[in-house]
Amino acid sequence: MIENNIYQNNNEENLDNEGIDIHELLFKYLAYWKWIVASVIVCLVIAFTYLRYATPIYSVSSTILLKDDKKGGGMDEMNALQDWGVITGKNNVDNEIELLRSKNLIKMVVSDLKLYTRYCGEGYVSDKELYKTSPVLVSVPENVLDSLSRSIFLHVEVSTTGKVKVEGVQNETEFTASFDSLPALLHTPAGILALYPNHIDRLEKDCKINISVVNPVNVARGYAARLGVNATSKTTSVIQLSITDNSVRRGIDFLNRLVDMYNRDAINDKNRVATNTDIFINNRLKKLSLELDSADRDLEKYKKSERITNIQADAQLSLQQKSQYSSKLVEVETQLNLVNYLDEYMRANADKVKLVPTNVGVSDATLQGLIVKYNTTLLELDRLKRTSSSQNPAVITMENTVDALYFNLLSSLKSVQQGLTITKKDLQKQADLFSSRINNVPTVEREYTERSRQQLIKSELFLSLLQKREENSLALAVTANSARVIDDANSSGNPISPKRKMVYMIALVLGFAIPIGIVYLLDILNIKIRNRRELESLTKIPVIGEIPLGLDNHEIAVEANVNNQMVEAFRLVRTNLQFMLANPNHKVVLVTSSIPGEGKSFVSINLAISLSLTKKRVLLMGMDIRKPTIGKYLGITKEEGVSSYLAGINLDYTSLIETSSISDTLDVLHGGTVPPNPSELLSNYRLEELFIELRNQYDYIVVDSAPIGLVSDTFVIGKYVDTALYVFRQDVSYKKNVEWLNHIVTSRKLTSLSLVLNGVKRKNNKYGYGYGYGYGNSYGQYGDDRSVKKKK
Questions:
Q1: What pTM, to 2 d.p., does this model score?
Q2: Nearest alpha-carbon partner for 283 in 336, 369, 363, 357
């Protein structure tokens, strides 16, 4: 026997390591080119339809400049006022960005532009946005908006006669109303809404509009998610604002109003400081006015009573020195009084809700800086509370900072008071020194000087507060914006979504991917052998031929003097088989398969006929004694066969052999009667003797054996054969059977094995055959109801 060492040695290798045949893969999918073209066309049509009716999304952007002294964002036209101390330009860019993103500010914009109401014109396929162009508008009271838990949806139809029909739903409650004309009041479960025409003088007729009213807080959340606020760089205070919307006009209005609301809010914060300062100055002026009037009247009364007209000449020099110290003493006392006023104000503001007056004339720079820092921090805390809860860690941190600054300010006031008191004592001491030099000056002159000094102190303080009141009034009158628009809100005009090129590209890719993916998925899910290439990829056993799928039901496909596709296929198998049986002693060919229905008997019969046409003596043996079919296919009516010889019933095997009517050189020894003990018969010593005798009489012996996937009979016969043909059938044989066959070859249960692929489908195939095979319960696996019927 021929030992096929090549496939036995390579059988254990991993077949997946073979390279992928690109050409085969390409032609495999090109076979479905019509489906691929159809899929691409359908996907492109779907993409076109989607782009035709999809709502485009646009990006609107704007650039603003924030006031920030640290980054050079201060506005030149405000520099003069900043030098006077009227306004300040110190803003933290990061904080301002958070303010621009705050939902409270966005909610103000939504409420101001009435973006909580959306209007869409009803179309055949999709609705059209009607921002500021809706013929019918809805007015929603503020109390209804605040209590709105579910959105209100309205469908408004205006007939050609001008009548208005409204269908609505809110919180799963439906309601309807009809009006002869607009404006009109609409009663809904949420409250009363007002409907009115967009144009006062006329109402557009014959239109259908879908209107939705949403709580402004929910709308603000949506805009906050789509709003972009980013600094252009870390070294500037330039901020870029961007928003995505399906209406360019609405996006532009939103960004413009956002900047306006931000500036308005910042101006209101600045005016709060100036207003509190104005109240403080006016209260002090009222009190000083009374005190100054009292001092003037007291001085006038004293001069009249004492009849003072001139100062003695001999006291001029001493009085001059004393006057200098008195002047300094006046300045110190003025500062001390201002500090005392501020100290009283701070202690009265223990709850830390009021701003400390600035620019009231206190000359101490450190104290003035603390006051400014305290006011700035208090404002930031107030603004942060408006956008965050009191439990926010940032709010708590800021409150602690305010507390610390408050006590630092009190401490600084105390220190300044003590310093001024010490200075006052020193000045007073010097003044008293010069007073001792003018002891001879009349007591009247001294009292006159004291009264004059009190009047001068109050007068200077009064004038100082008047000046500060004017400066504060100027600060109230100036409306300096915190943000200046550099680039107006605008859009490129091209939608950012959907992107036409991207959609068409995706459609094109999907057009190719869907059919290819389906083919690939079916290929993965396929458990049966579909072609020779697939069979060869699963095993190293050589495939010596492919038998095409026939179109008729004849088991005899090979005939003399006939040339067709089927005959040529068997000739190829015969030629390859003859090479394998080149040794004159090698004559016996075993034909088997895994399961019934794969065509092993068909291959056995036609292979034997093809061999006999070469003028060789050929014997066709039906060794499938469990389900003999050779005799039935060849029209043999004799009941006795090889089973009778093995059972010892007829020991003259020559009497069991019949010459086929197909060829004079083809003899047939069919299986005969089905025995009750096929396994025992095949193990009989007579089988070996039979093969020895037959080898001496025939050139070729073709043995039709039972499927090895069901019974072990073939393995018993295998030791008497020279080579074996294993038949697989396209779209019938399972891939797992190939793996099992590889295991059989590895264990050397069958040697010199070759494969034949049967039932190969070819295009324009005009030739065919019919074939059937069935097994009964004797196999113990398939019943009569599962027998394989004849197949084309």
A1: 0.53
A2: 357
